[in-house]
Amino acid sequence: MTAIRETIPPRTSKPPKKAIPWKKFLLPIAIALVVLFSLAPAFWQLLTSFKVNEDIAAIPTVYVPTRYTLAHYIELFVRRPFWRYIFNSAFVSVTSTALSLAIGAPAAYALARLRPWGERFILAGVLIVTLFPGILLFIGLLEIIQALRWGNNYLALIIPYTAINLPLTILVLRSFFQQLPKDLEDSARVDGYNTFQLLWQIVLPMTLPALVTTGILTFIFAWNEFIFTLTFMTREELKTIPVAAAQLGGASVYEIPYGPIAAATVVGTLPLVLLVLFFQRRIVQGLTAGAVKG
Fold first, then answer.
1. Are 235 and 129 in contact, with CB atoms under 8 Å apart?
2. What digits encode the pLDDT tens for the residues 190-234?
3. CA angle 221, 226, 231 (to 5 degrees)
4. Residue 245: how many CB atoms within 10 A of its CB?
């Protein structure tokens, strides 16, 4: 008898199923939603600033207007001295930012390298002041401004803004100064550099991204501050953009000028956007370096 062998066909292995790359789809969608959520109010104000009054008051709401006008911007600069408000905001913000960096950079370098007596207590005090809400200083500042007769004076804004921004400036710059290699500073001292020359010619150029990042943060705070300007500046020609935009009025007490308010919002925000875009590379370098070193 001959045995009949049963031939079993070889098993063919099924190709593995490819995993769906959810991250490639979900991550861009999530980023787009976050960007849309963040920019929607600004985009709405931009559209409102170009709408005619009929579209602004229309029911149902006109989301995408078909008629555009520059009347709100023209009214903004004709009825009110808005160029003066822009100058006031720019002058106060630039001056307080320059003072914060000029005072904060040497103080941060001294805390990072010179190790003064009571360093821990100084750092603890700076940190406590940073966490302290600025609005709680309002009553004390009001008494000081009245005593010094600084009402309707730029110093009433520049000095408080500088003092409030100094702790943050010192803490941020100190962390960057601590990460610099000390060998470079020792070599400079051997070459005859004193402490001031070392700070001005070597240390500060190396920490330029940190200076730009810190300066922009202090500038934004000074540019957007409202309550101090509202209280300390009562003369019309000394007000800044936030107060001037909040006090825009219509033809009567029953009218809310949505168009000019939106135009004032755009005008007040545009310099900050341009500033961030201009220094975008420095800001990214500063934030990246701070994250890596932290």
1. no
2. 878 787 888 888 888 888 888 888 899 899 999 999 989 999 998
3. 130
4. 22
Q: What is the mean pLDDT of residues 122-148?
A: 83
Beta-bridge mates of residue 51: 68
- How far, in Å, are 53, 102, 110, 187, 250 from residue 97 at the CA level? 39, 9, 20, 32, 35
- Cβ neighbors of 275 (< 8 A, separation 6 or more) are 216, 219
Contact, 222 vs 154, CB < 8 A?
no
For tokens 């875009």, the residue is: 277
Single out the residue of 141, 152, 146 nearest to residue 236, CA to CA: 152
Q: What's the maximum distance between 2 C-alpha atoms anywhere in the chain?
A: 124
Main-chain dihedrals φ then ψ at residue 100, nearest 5 degrees: -60, -45
Determine what percent of the chain is predicted with pLDDT higher than 70.
Answer: 86
Identify how many contiguous H helices and E strands the chain contains and give both numbers: 15, 0
d(CA 230, CA 233): 6
Q: Decide: pTM greater than 0.90.
A: no
Cα–Cα distance for residue pair 203/189, rounded to 1 Å: 12
Distance CA 202, CA 191 (A): 12
Place of tokens 């070597």: 202
As a whole number of angstroms, the distance between CA 168 and CA 173 comes to 9
* Residue 162 half-sphere exposure toward CB, CA atoms < 13 A: 19
Q: Which amino acid is at 114?
A: L
DSSP string, 116-182: -TTHHHHHHHHHHHHHS-GGGGHHHHHHHHHHHT-TTSTHHHHHHHHHHHHHHHHHHHHHHHHHS-H
Helix (H, G, I), strand (E, B) or coil at 51: strand
- Is the peptide bond preceding residue 116 cis, with omega within 30 degrees of 0? no
Degrees to nearest 5, angle at CA 92 with 83 and 78: 10
